[in-house]
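Supplementary Methods. Inverse-folding protocol.

Structures were first reduced to a discrete structure-token string of length 397. This string, shown here, constituted the complete conditioning input.
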């Protein structure tokens, strides 16, 4: 019998490959099988009942659990060093389920105002319908956030770095304040990934990933993952199993396959984004660059203290009017114009068609997102080719 692995002692590169996949699979398979069965049969009614009540490991019905999905949940649990993890059909399903599983009428959420567009839409449109108050603060105004937490807060929602302005929030400091106020701390770790940042170790209660992005890494599967302590995850899982936003086994398999190269890819994303950000910073046709790895960035010191790498996403504004953007995007050779990020290819687009497509121009202004901004998810291509592509495109404007 193999000795149980103490995953805390294992490096993230090895966790990405082997996490959840050290057990034997049927017929000696070395890769996690994709199990598409919806139902699981039991000849013994007593055993069936024990599994259905959670007293014994096993599966009953695909909306609840699935063998392939369970392996993925175990992998992210190990990478985030969490007690438990569960999964969802998309990143937004994960975010909305967490909020509705933990909030009730009369509660208050405190969050930064420039969170991802889908999240801000929940804050601005859906939660108020249920008499849940949302306090959206300047993301970098930690004193204001502290004040709002202490006034009346049941849930503190952090996104760091933010999408698309790449602002940084001090997870440890804000978590300490929230804990004293009795608030639950939720952190969207999508842009950082568990390779670059570990929110649970900094005081967060729950960590969210849109697994569609860097975890999958190949733009071919939707999914959401959530980690935390057993009680919090059980409450969220119970809400999800009844509401039905379950992750499909085929998507789980693709995300699992992508995650095996996660540490390797993130290292390249980090170095490419930092080099491109520094190059853009010195270009005369670029007005402003948003990237926490730049020493000129207001969040640099906090990012340096809580992140191992600064991530693969940056944003920038072009000199001139908003109408320069279509020409810039169309002339890039090695970049997709798409509403996505975290893939092996470089992807470029403005917030109004990517992160905040659901929001009106007035809402984007309220959230502090310029209309002439471009978000760039830097891929794993050779950085010289990326920079040359950007140089020629900027010269042609």
């Amino acid at each position: 019998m193999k000795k149980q692995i103490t995953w805390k002692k294992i490096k993230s590169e090895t966790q990405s490959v082997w996490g959840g996949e050290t057990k034997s699979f049927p017929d000696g398979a070395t890769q996690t099988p994709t199990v598409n069965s919806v139902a699981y049969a039991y000849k013994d009614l007593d055993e069936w009942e024990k599994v259905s009540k959670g007293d014994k490991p096993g599966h009953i019905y695909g909306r609840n659990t699935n063998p392939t999905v369970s392996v993925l949940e175990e992998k992210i649990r190990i990478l985030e060093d969490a007690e438990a993890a569960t999964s969802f059909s998309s990143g937004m399903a994960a975010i909305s389920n967490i909020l509705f599983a933990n909030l009730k009428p009369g509660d208050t959420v405190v969050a930064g105002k420039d969170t991802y567009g889908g999240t801000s839409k929940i804050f601005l449109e859906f939660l108020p319908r249920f008499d849940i108050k949302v306090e959206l603060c300047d993301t970098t105004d930690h004193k204001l956030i502290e004040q709002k937490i202490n006034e009346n807060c049941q849930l503190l929602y952090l996104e760091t770095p933010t999408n698309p302005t790449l602002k940084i929030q001090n997870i440890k400091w804000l978590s300490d304040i929230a804990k004293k106020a009795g608030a639950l701390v939720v952190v969207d770790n999508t842009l950082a990934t568990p390779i670059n940042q570990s929110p649970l170790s900094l005081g967060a209660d729950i960590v969210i990933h849109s697994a569609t992005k860097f975890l999958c890494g190949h733009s071919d599967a939707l999914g959401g993952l959530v980690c935390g302590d057993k009680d919090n995850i059980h409450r969220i899982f119970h809400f999800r199993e009844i509401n039905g936003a379950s992750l499909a086994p085929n998507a789980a398999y693709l995300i699992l396959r992508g995650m095996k190269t996660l540490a390797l890819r993130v290292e390249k994303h980090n170095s490419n984004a930092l080099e491109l950000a520094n190059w853009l910073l010195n270009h005369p046709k670029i007005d402003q660059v948003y990237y926490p790895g730049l020493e000129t960035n207001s969040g640099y010191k906090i990012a340096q203290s809580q992140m191992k790498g600064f991530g693969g996403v940056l944003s920038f504004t072009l000199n001139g009017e908003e109408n320069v953007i279509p020409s810039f995007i169309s002339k890039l050779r090695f970049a997709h114009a798409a509403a996505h990020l975290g893939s092996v290819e470089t992807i470029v687009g403005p917030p109004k068609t990517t992160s905040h497509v659901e929001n009106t121009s007035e809402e984007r202004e309220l959230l502090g997102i310029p209309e002439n901004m471009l978000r760039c998810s830097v891929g794993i291509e050779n950085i010289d080719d990326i920079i040359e592509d950007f140089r020629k495109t900027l010269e042609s404007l």
